[in-house]
Amino acid sequence: MTTEPNTNPTPETPAPAEAAAPAADRMRYVIPAVLSTLLTLVALAPVAYVINRNMPARVATVDLQVLVEEDQKRTLDVIGKGGDVTAEQRAVAQKLTIDFAKKLSATVDALGQECNCVIVNKAALLGGVTIDYTDQVRARMK
Description:
Structural class: mainly alpha
Transmembrane segments: 29-51
Strand order of the largest sheet: 2-1-3
CATH superfamily of the largest domain: Skp domain
Largest sheet: 3 strands, parallel
Keywords: Membrane, Plasmid, Transmembrane, Transmembrane helix
Helix content: 55-70%
Region (Disordered): 1-20
Number of helices: 4
């Protein structure tokens, strides 16, 4: 005895055409909603660009006083801590100071371009909270 498969749908299992109907009804609502969302985003993209372009730059700080004091200590270590400073030691100290100032200026400029922000001396900040890049400047200058 062989049993043939039952091809008639039972009331418990819906027919394939009946199962596809709710999915087709959902797609009638989903596709216009997705297209409407995409068109809205495309229409608002130029507005977002203009707003972003006209926003003021962010402000960040660098504690220049700490960096200068650290450089002065290094300079004093190089020329020695004797009471009398010779002309040669003075020239070395002046060259080290000039090199430090150039390197500091270039480092702060590069960091400002990378972060797309305005960098000010920490002592000039009167209020508010900003990002402090002192450690990053110190690491780049070594």
